[in-house]
Design a protein that fits this description.
With 491 residues, the protein is mainly beta. The protein has helices at 2-6, 375-381, 408-414, 463-468, 478-483, and strands at 47-53, 69-76, 79-86, 97-103, 119-122, 133-142, 145-153, 162-168, 175-176, 198-206, 209-216, 230-234, 244-247, 250-253, 272-276, 281-288, 291-297, 309-312, 317-324, 339-350, 356-367, 385-388, 394-398, 401-405, 417-418, 431-435, 441-444, 447-451, 457-460, 473-475, 486-489. The chain has two domains: 2-367, Tachylectin-2, Chain A (5 Propeller), CATH 2.115.10; 382-489, no CATH class. 6% of the residues lie in helices and 38% in strands. This is Beta-xylosidase.
């Protein structure tokens, strides 16, 4: 699975920047009030500091695991959780397995759910599209549901790779979604020597959209060697309806996920995607000559707001960005208003049969973000973050406002990140409403919602949130759902 996609084909590296960004406080808000602000400069050079790396290997499978690569790293409920591609002889059919481990910090040690060696939590399903290989995980948590996007293949045949989806209540026990069928396969726009097909997914959840970035060596806009990263988005996590593809003119509706691949966002393989609220930008992490290059895009993927930045060091495959549960960048514990941490895990050496292994951590901070420069910037920076309120409840920042939530467990489920202390800058955001235990809940074909004390309907991601709040959803028609005064989405 690994050798056919990389084929030793890379792009030139980019140099690290050290100058302060210019007029970074003019970045437009993405979340909430959509505050109108002057356009910001593009291609700004960012300063960097606090370079870091682990002292050695932070995670590896058991003794029979000859390789470890393709990590997905999540900061979730006070732990660092990681899923990656390996192979255990007794886990399932011969082929790739997805391993899972957790640690108290990014530098490990990472252990399985009950301690000891990492556990194989997802393997091939004989007779299905992923009968032999399950690899390249990208994991999100939205509300109370974990989503695992992965590369699957029935065997080692050409063009056998496609992308599948599984869901879980805990990130350990997984159930295949979409009837066990792939949610995305090769487009077959072009026939190239690299016959890998479609795979290596990376997914971000932003403003109700699932953004799916992936490799497709058969895509029209891929390079001569098959390198390229394509983007789809949908409000459906399985991409079964409402899918849009990134084209040369922006996102356009497509009839299926196999629509022609007209535009690639970076020339590379095995990349990772993250939304950075403090910079109001997406970042694509991909390997280049000197390490991991961070390439920045505006929210609509029309411009590069910042110059590329390099996280230097050795690598053989990767990287996996350290992300929040929703795929967003975590806040800096030292200074969330000025620093943005970027950390990656990547395979650094070769193991048996020349496969990548030895997962290590590398990172740095980008400085001078001015992320609290005005209310719009504060809203974007802290969107999806929950923290204690002055009333011994929890505040969740959504859509440029704070929602006061009585139950800490509910706030944590809705949050991409939980802080133990509220940053002073958040006080500029108004309190919009309060969610009390047992609040009225409704269910319609479009989803679930809770009626807060402002008597507005605030959408929630799934039934797990409703139950955790001690509420019971009663069914309503689409017309009744649409008649409610609406708040924003809580997740």
């Amino acid at each position: 699975m690994f050798a056919s996609v990389l084929a030793g084909l890379l792009v030139a590296g980019c140099t690290q920047g050290y100058a302060q960004p210019q007029a970074a406080g003019d970045q437009p808000a993405i979340a909430g009030g959509k505050t109108a602000e002057p356009p910001r400069p593009t291609d700004v050079k960012l300063a960097s500091g606090d370079p870091r790396q682990s002292g050695g290997v932070i995670a590896a499978g058991g003794a029979d695991a000859v390789y470890n690569y393709g990590p997905s790293v999540m900061l979730d409920h006070g732990q660092t959780r990681m899923w990656w591609c390996s192979q255990y002889g007794g886990a399932g059919p011969a082929g790739d397995d997805i391993l899972y481990a957790r640690a108290q910090s990014i530098d490990g040690p990472f252990t399985g759910p009950g301690g000891g060696i990492p556990a194989a939590v997802f393997s091939g399903a004989p007779g299905q599209f992923d009968g032999m290989h399950t690899c390249d995980p990208s994991v999100l948590r939205v509300g109370s549901t974990y989503y695992l996007y992965y590369t699957g293949a029935a065997g080692d045949h050409a063009l056998g790779n496609a992308i599948g989806l599984a869901t879980s209540p805990d990130g350990v026990h997984w159930t295949r979604a979409a009837g066990g069928r792939p949610i995305l396969g090769p487009s077959h726009d072009v026939h190239r020597a690299n016959v890998y097909g479609a795979g290596q997914p990376s997914v971000v959840y932003l403003d109700g959209w699932f953004y799916l970035m992936f490799t497709d060596t058969t895509g029209r806009a891929a390079g001569w060697n098959g390198a390229g990263q394509f983007l789809l988005r949908s409000r459906d996590p399985a991409f079964g309806s409402g899918a849009q593809a990134l084209d040369v003119g922006g996102f356009v509706p497509v009839a299926s996920t196999s629509a022609p691949r007209a535009r690639s966002v970076v020339d590379g393989f095995s990349a990772d995607l993250m939304w950075v609220g403090a910079l109001a930008a997406f970042v694509v992490a991909h390997e280049t000559d000197g390490g991991t290059t961070l390439t920045f895009w505006t929210a609509d993927f029309t411009e590069h707001p910042f110059q590329p930045v390099l996280i230097p060091g050795p690598w053989k495959e990767g990287p996996g960005l350290v992300r929040r549960a929703d795929g967003h960048a975590p806040l800096s514990s030292a200074d969330p208003c000025d620093r943005v941490p970027f950390d990656v895990v990547r395979a650094t050496t070769l193991g048996g049969a020349g496969a990548p292994t030895d997962l290590r951590h590398f990172g740095l901070d980008l400085l001078g973000s001015r992320a609290c420069g005005n209310p719009g910037r504060v809203a974007a920076t802290f969107d999806g973050v929950t923290m204690p309120s002055p009333e011994r409840t929890m505040d969740l920042v959504r859509a440029g406002r704070r929602v006061r939530i009585d139950r800490r467990s509910v706030a944590a489920m809705l949050a991409g990140e939980l802080l133990e202390k509220a940053p002073p800058a958040v006080a500029v955001l108004p309190v919009a409403a309060r969610l009390r235990p047992g609040a009225e809940a409704v269910q319609a074909p479009g989803g679930f919602g809770l009626l807060l004390d402002d008597r507005r309907l605030w959408r929630v991601p799934d039934a797990g949130i409703v139950a955790a709040n001690g509420s019971a959803a009663h069914p309503v028609t689409a017309a009744q759902w649409n008649a409610y005064p609406r708040g924003a989405s809580l997740g």
